[in-house]
């Protein structure tokens, strides 16, 4: 029977939504105590905020909490790992601090996990329809490609918003990938997982930190961490191009031998040069991406660095004591 639950929430410049998020946490804490008899510990990770988020959080948080301050912005994936590393509870709930992840869904996920001892993870799956048809097709293609020839499936539209048992947390903290693709790692770790559908709320304030370019880079990161499919596709293109070249070459040869047709060379040459040049560059860039991942892993730098930890002083509200 689970007794304690850690809430892990990374934040970057969320001063605007700090007090609302603390309010949500308080409500969640009493609901969790009432419904499941569990004690809650809050682990907020400051991912290098440049506003006064930390001050606002430490002034308003109550009960049992700590704020792990990273030395700079390491990215949400690293911040989540920092939170997991500090988790000691029987269960852990990961949620965003911008109020897009609601209390109701959190409670629903916890209830599912408490009710069924056979399940280890309950994750929230976004049921949003993509804004455009093109985008949704792109997303589908992404998951289809990344999940092909894999022993595990990365579910579509499932992110960090999830509840898991301590054993899963432990498993995840053992994975020290430098370039982290959490969606993939969660699936890779295995365990028995269950989905709960949800629609994310609108951001309380500010804007998402994900630009279109970020998303593209992130997708590429997914591939380079979890799949060789792009390399295989490009290799296949190479083989097909070579075959096409051979067929065309044979055709030209026979035309010259049997019909004496002088081959108009310029356009065909140009097509071949540009096509193969493009293919070569694509493959080279792609190999570079994989080499870059290998390089980051072999440098073996820590995934994040903790500047200090501010923690509740004997449960007094708003009294943060800093420890290095
Ligand atoms: N976040 C973070 N580090 C970053 C970017 C974001 O800790 O480098 C936090 C952010 O404060 C929020 C959560 O991660 O609590 C999700 O970020 P965001 O809302 O930008 O992403 P989205 O909801 O659009 O996926
Ligand atoms: Mg958000």
What proportion of the residues form beta strands (DSSP E)?
A: 15-25%
User: What integer is the average pLDDT?
Assistant: 85
Ions, cofactors and other ligands present here are: uridine-5'-diphosphate, magnesium ion
What is the level-2 CATH architecture name of the domain at 4-138 and 153-210 and 303-323?
A: Alpha-Beta Complex
**Which bin fits the share of residues in helices?**
40-55%
CATH fold title of the domain at 4-138 and 153-210 and 303-323: Spore Coat Polysaccharide Biosynthesis Protein SpsA, Chain A
Number of alpha- plus pi-helical segments:
10
Order of strands side by side in the largest beta sheet? Answer: 7-5-6-4-1-2-3-8-9
The 3D shape can be described as: elongated
The structure class reads alpha/beta
- For the record, what CATH class of the domain at 4-138 and 153-210 and 303-323 applies? Alpha Beta
